[in-house]
Amino acid sequence: MVDKMDYVHGYSDRENSRLCDQASTLTMLLHHDTIYPSGSRVLEAGCGVGAQTVILARNSPKASITSIDISGESVEKARLLTEKEGVTNVSFQVADIFDLPFEEETFDHVFICFVLEHLKNPLDALLSVKKVLKKEGTITVIEGDHGSSYFYPRSDEAMQTIKCLINIQELLGGNSLIGRELYPLLNRAGFKSVSISPRMVYVDSSKPDLVEGFTKNTFNAMVEGVREQALELKMIDEKTWTKGINDLYRAAGQEGTFCYTFFKGTATK
Amino acid sequence: MVDKMDYVHGYSDRENSRLCDQASTLTMLLHHDTIYPSGSRVLEAGCGVGAQTVILARNSPKASITSIDISGESVEKARLLTEKEGVTNVSFQVADIFDLPFEEETFDHVFICFVLEHLKNPLDALLSVKKVLKKEGTITVIEGDHGSSYFYPRSDEAMQTIKCLINIQELLGGNSLIGRELYPLLNRAGFKSVSISPRMVYVDSSKPDLVEGFTKNTFNAMVEGVREQALELKMIDEKTWTKGINDLYRAAGQEGTFCYTFFKGTATK
């Protein structure tokens, strides 16, 4: 089962829709301070289905963005999405982040969002993009950290379902706890002036948009997405799973609260 | 052992110094937006040794602050501290938060910081202070949440030492995971316009003041403070404890990162 999928979130239509919901809810929190100047060349490494690409391109309408992804199918979806959204400053390419088809020091800026967490060797990915980045160019990395999730009412079963997601991502060679690790990673890759900014999402029922857009449709949907694998791998039994997922939705209820933190790292070459 | 102490942090001199270190490091993060108008009457319920009192009084120099605590010894220390610091707008009183010696609707504002986490029934405390609060008066509550701590490099042993702190506080009738619960608590107490603002502390070695002032001298010192109880209660063995504490200090090292979140709730009567 696990060998068949390389990407923990899969490539289903529900998943594409989830990634786009997530992008619009979190846009301001994650992206408001990433604005590239007119004429600058930006590499988006790992664009997936283009959920972040559209935001990135809109925030920097006069920058020239090159978005790559290893999956041809995803690149095609990203291309269609940007066309549909009327975004014109992005060119797409199917390419491997570990073997980039660009000259050294091609780009003024590199942007990586929700990618390192899926890679077996994120440090090599950083070293690879560093090569194609100009001297004094900047890198921006945004990653989540599933270990930053906690909620009220507390529930051991709900924590176990989250642990399944973390473990499955780890079995696939990824690290969903990478957010807390951006500081040492960027430093080890030899970047300068590394600065990490945590972006915490706190949700209670006074914020119904976040309850729907983040807790339910982003986080809970992501956990629910590994149900089959978790049961098949006997990481959890069905009864515990069902209770855990119910408890995650209870934390999205009237009396519930939910916390999650993204990390945004910036540095220069 | 546990019966002898009511307050998880104890009353030692090292502890008083830790509470004051903590207060100055976190001042801006927690207190910058609490400023009471000239002439307003403010109740600080549970002032302890006065670490927050001094900040509160300085930020609102023309408000009239009444600070109470159940411990006469703490109130005396708080009084000495404010005298030493030249603060003159605070009067102190030994009093029980559950049985306040004030008329109903006496105060314009109530301020509670790091108190509810130590109480067996925080809801009753909120109902009690609500009585002495005027209609349309505000309440401000600041609490931590030890379950919000995570760090790099990860360590199961370090997590176990934190769990000891959480469990000992629970044995004493407290709840060190109360931060995430402020929203339902304030609502259940019947307050209106409840708004919760998380205040996350993210520390890496680019912030040496926070490494010293928060990770080492506040958080790690707090965990280390329950060593004897944890070992005596056989919650953990000595080898695991030592490894765990070493790992907490490793997270305060060159490659380490440390995260903790406080919650600040405000509401009106």
Automatic annotation (TrEMBL), chains A, B:
It holds the Pfam family Methyltransf_31. Residues 38-153 form the Methyltransferase domain. It comes from the Archaea. GO terms for molecular function: methyltransferase activity. InterPro entries: Methyltranfer_dom, SAM-binding_MTase, SAM-dependent_MTases_sf. PANTHER family: METHYLTRANSFERASE TYPE 11, S-ADENOSYLMETHIONINE-DEPENDENT METHYLTRANSFERASE RV2258C. This is Methyltransferase domain-containing protein. It comes from Methanosarcina acetivorans (strain ATCC 35395 / DSM 2834 / JCM 12185 / C2A). The lineage of its organism: Archaea, Methanobacteriati, Methanobacteriota, Stenosarchaea group, Methanomicrobia.
